Amino acid sequence: MGSPDDNRLRFQLRFTPARVVRRKKDGFVSEEIRKNFASDNVTPICPEVMAALIAANEGSVGSYGEDDLTRSLNERFGEVFETEVAVFPIATGTAANSVALSALVSPYGAVLCDESAHINMDEGGAPEFYMHGAKLICIPSADGKVDPVTVPPVLKSNAESGILSPVIQALSLTQANEWGTVYSPDTLAELSRIAHEHDLSVHLDGARLGNALAHLGCTPAEGTWKAGVDVLSFGGTKAGAMAAEAVVFFLNDRTRPLMKNFLRRIKRSGNLWSKHRFLSAQLLALLQNDVWLKNAVHANAMAQRLVDGLRRHAAAQMPYERQSNEVFVILPDLLLKDLEEAGYGFYRWPTPEGVPGTLIRLVTSYYTRPEDVDALLAEIAA
Amino acid sequence: MGSPDDNRLRFQLRFTPARVVRRKKDGFVSEEIRKNFASDNVTPICPEVMAALIAANEGSVGSYGEDDLTRSLNERFGEVFETEVAVFPIATGTAANSVALSALVSPYGAVLCDESAHINMDEGGAPEFYMHGAKLICIPSADGKVDPVTVPPVLKSNAESGILSPVIQALSLTQANEWGTVYSPDTLAELSRIAHEHDLSVHLDGARLGNALAHLGCTPAEGTWKAGVDVLSFGGTKAGAMAAEAVVFFLNDRTRPLMKNFLRRIKRSGNLWSKHRFLSAQLLALLQNDVWLKNAVHANAMAQRLVDGLRRHAAAQMPYERQSNEVFVILPDLLLKDLEEAGYGFYRWPTPEGVPGTLIRLVTSYYTRPEDVDALLAEIAA
Amino acid sequence: MGSPDDNRLRFQLRFTPARVVRRKKDGFVSEEIRKNFASDNVTPICPEVMAALIAANEGSVGSYGEDDLTRSLNERFGEVFETEVAVFPIATGTAANSVALSALVSPYGAVLCDESAHINMDEGGAPEFYMHGAKLICIPSADGKVDPVTVPPVLKSNAESGILSPVIQALSLTQANEWGTVYSPDTLAELSRIAHEHDLSVHLDGARLGNALAHLGCTPAEGTWKAGVDVLSFGGTKAGAMAAEAVVFFLNDRTRPLMKNFLRRIKRSGNLWSKHRFLSAQLLALLQNDVWLKNAVHANAMAQRLVDGLRRHAAAQMPYERQSNEVFVILPDLLLKDLEEAGYGFYRWPTPEGVPGTLIRLVTSYYTRPEDVDALLAEIAA
Amino acid sequence: MGSPDDNRLRFQLRFTPARVVRRKKDGFVSEEIRKNFASDNVTPICPEVMAALIAANEGSVGSYGEDDLTRSLNERFGEVFETEVAVFPIATGTAANSVALSALVSPYGAVLCDESAHINMDEGGAPEFYMHGAKLICIPSADGKVDPVTVPPVLKSNAESGILSPVIQALSLTQANEWGTVYSPDTLAELSRIAHEHDLSVHLDGARLGNALAHLGCTPAEGTWKAGVDVLSFGGTKAGAMAAEAVVFFLNDRTRPLMKNFLRRIKRSGNLWSKHRFLSAQLLALLQNDVWLKNAVHANAMAQRLVDGLRRHAAAQMPYERQSNEVFVILPDLLLKDLEEAGYGFYRWPTPEGVPGTLIRLVTSYYTRPEDVDALLAEIAA
After folding, report:
1. Which keywords does the record carry (chains A, B, C, D) (predicted)?
2. Are C244 and C87 in contact, with CB atoms under 8 Å apart?
């Protein structure tokens, strides 16, 4: 696709995708061993979502969301989250985060977030584009989680700077975050309390919300609005969809004015599908029978199986606790080269100085099977 | 979906979508009579594209376009358009137009277009958003087509205004345009010649390019770059896809610098799918065996069948020549009410003053069958 | 200054500024005959404003508006306009209009204005930049004035377009406008009434407000908020200042929420002077003893003197009634050439087809003397 | 001025401006003792600039820069900087920095700078606004200076992130910077070399360039383009002007394409004065007889006098070396209270934890006299 001079992807040159495709299994013509641990977005569409796309492909319906599937979204999400919500489907996570934030802050405002946040590091400047130049003000952390004690001093300093600094109007948190770790509902609630006290609204980037909930063992409600979250980017793509996320406003006095004209923001940013039913169908399929949560439980279990195996290798160092479906591990460079030659896919991460080896990220998904994890562990052991 | 206070759609309140769904026919469980003529985007996904989505759903592949389907796009489009191209898939037409234009003009620049153009009237301000506030400078016309003689005076006046007016840097044309009429390749070439002489690049909004080509009987090459078009928004959704358009750069000395970093613009606007294969698969399916053109030929024929029938009704006035798959017709208000009660879907359009009745738009598609047209005509005759 | 490739100014090549500078008169070392009628911004600073700048240049004071002169602005403007106001000084009219409009409309919104409006034709796209891509939706007119009867249909069509069209949230009027004509307070009030009924706020571009008030013979209050104006761009530069305009919010229920954080908008757009007293001093000097209005009365009288003289020339055609300090007149091309050779400065305007000669604009100011007008008339008569 | 709910200025509540104004001295009716050390922008206009404003106020001249003063800028600045330049006057430093950066980076790009940089901390988000949402990527430092060894790793990481991170296209340095320290020409040259190797252009925020040059004892050329600087924000306001900065492009192969249409950017951002001569006159007056540098030499000497005096006080801790006209000193809180009660003006700064007292900033200027410094020192000693 497109321009040859684009430096396309982080660490791309080192990434060799697995290509061994042989036989049919669980509905897919697929790799014998699934060796691509680069991300949970290298996966196909899960069977339930694909079935929903096929089922939705019947007859003429109103475009731009004037269809029955779309009309049922608010109610269905409301049931899952046990509260009144307004749901806006969007194909990509970057767009969902960005358009959500654009409703929470003025162009002269700012969003407070962790320095490692996806919105700051991995979305190509989309939040700043959608927010018309509003600023991300970042707090560094060791593990990707904003520590509540660090927030009040930043807000105080921001207030003291007056008009010289963009005014912080929202707090954006990621659950599970970029290092695979997870906020407890108590910490979320504490952060939300501080935010609300300072007139900030709270946004949750939930691209991997299911994995976080699966880890915490709490309900979607407990992990979001009951902990003070105002607006959620609900992640569907990594949970098994083709391309489907949703901005979910939990209705309250703070969110009602913010969501005014939100559909205009979606249209104006090119995110409104004319054949909108196919966006809604994916989301409904994920909610149906808790597919998104079941997929997350499975992905987490596969990540734990990987961690358990890696712990048996002296050379493997894991700097973060495994709390979702991402495993960060430092492995010797020679071993990594062997893995790549064996067809395994993963991303290298910046590695702390002085440590022998390289930090890599291994991501599991609904599509990862125990035998795939075991094969990788065997390859590492060999 | 979403906010109840949004005034969602043009003339929405009057629109009653057809809901009579009964039995299986040509692959769809579908309406016995397809009564929704509101747009070519109320239709389902055509069988070839759906098959391609299913076929693409196998195994892990690189994300963000690092997959074999995406890698084949440039070559495949190059074959169809008989020249070297760079292709960037995008889910919606609004985003495709807008991100394309953002590469052609500076934020302090302007785009020249017809006043009726989709980018000016129907995209919710997306072009201005993507272009960071660059201006659309519009020329009025009777039939939605920019008349070449009107262009040089506007460019002269723009040049004379110097820095007081945003500098026009691109000409955007729509083919087929909002009134369903079509530029001849000669007129396109004349407009492109004028544009290039004044250092403007030429963008073609081809949301219904197939319908225009089907009407003109010319090749994709003759209807685009051979007539001077530099950048095309290739329309897939209305041609039968789920959600798939493409920005196609025809490579030449003007376009090569403009497309630099184009993928960054796509990522930054939230348009880059992680599971990118499913965007590419749709486009490839449309090109395979000329599905897009065959669908367009069929849609045009259905529109002509409709025109032929309407001509037999004294009350029906058709202000524009039918040249694609859109039919504009003025019908008595009582008749329109009857049609709506019978379940027919269509949009009302602003009607010239003093004319009895109301101007409506009837759009056909690959999904419209002769019996559907005949049923509508019979309803009108009744 | 700067880049040689910029096409700097409208009709610049034909403009030869008067350069005959000889002797001192009324405080200025100045041209014997003042021949530059190109604009009211080719003039020097009027004596009262210059005296105020010198007077303000004493001692250290707080920066960014924390000075006594600035602190007195709200009260002083409040006296002149006979109501409670919030005043924000800004150096240029383009910035004042643009930052004002950015507070009245959302980025997904639109401003309704006359097609000839300065914000649409002469500000280099600044309104769109400051409004983050919000759109100007323009109504054509014969004389630069929005006709009240044309407004409701545009608002109705905009509402019916729903999310497909940016929502019109403000009406911007120009007083006096680009063709030198002036709204009556009754017409202003009628336009404001329509605007407010549709939830639009009303902005008045008053770069030449003094000239309009001088023509109408009404008070500043009658010509603005009593006629429904919510926000005014108060023009100081053309009235005699060096570089000083002001955004004036007339406080009411509509404007109070809009002006929230307005100072942030000013800072963020680079318009906040650190040595702010020198901006405020200019404005206060104009208000003191009604200098701005006296200057306007004089400028208008000089324009009328010019009109009276031109009427005696058969070849002179004046398409618009003289209502402020701008005179539009069609004169034979040979005569214009002679005027330029004699050192006269003026701008050519696009001339209606079929008319012999060229339309030019002659602008008078506080700095124009009767003998200057008479000299020009004599030159034309010769 | 304006809205009462704006939180206007950093630490404003603690700031009590000196108000003791008594008698005439050196041209000013002024404070007996000048007690306002809050900033170098609390000062009046220096006599040479005021004289130039008065001198420029003669006769009609072309507007928007079509005047002789403006026409002479390129040559005059070229003499001072000993190279070919293109000069664009702008009233405020925030606007000068922001419009300059907007020419150096694409909206999808980024600027690399020190975390403490004025563009990051003190300009209310103006750079992001002017750059249409391009990002500031910041490097932390101890003393406000980017350390050359920290740059390559950031550029490497940025390149590896590919399209996921906005591409760094410019390096912005501040001279003298926010902590009053100064880059040596060698360090500047080293930073520029790294930047140019990576296709970054180099911007210098020279709001206090004169103070830096005065400290370094090098020529303007040695301190800028000979050390690799491509574009300079030349600071005039703090050097004695009313409101006058300039964007200075040092012409080379990198800058020539970047400055294309730069005047359009100035107009579009509302920064183009119609009575442009008064902006140019200020700058010319500063250059004439090296007024800007002489003022800087004096200001620096006054700062050194202050440092010398403070060193005699055991309680005074100065964390940074005095290299320009800013003195940072930690003083006991009781003393600060006494100083404020005595009418002294200064800003409090965030103070490192565990240190007794508070960090304050004391700024000297052309307007500070030895007796003013001595009076302050005496007050502290008392």
Report:
1. Lyase, Pyridoxal phosphate
2. no
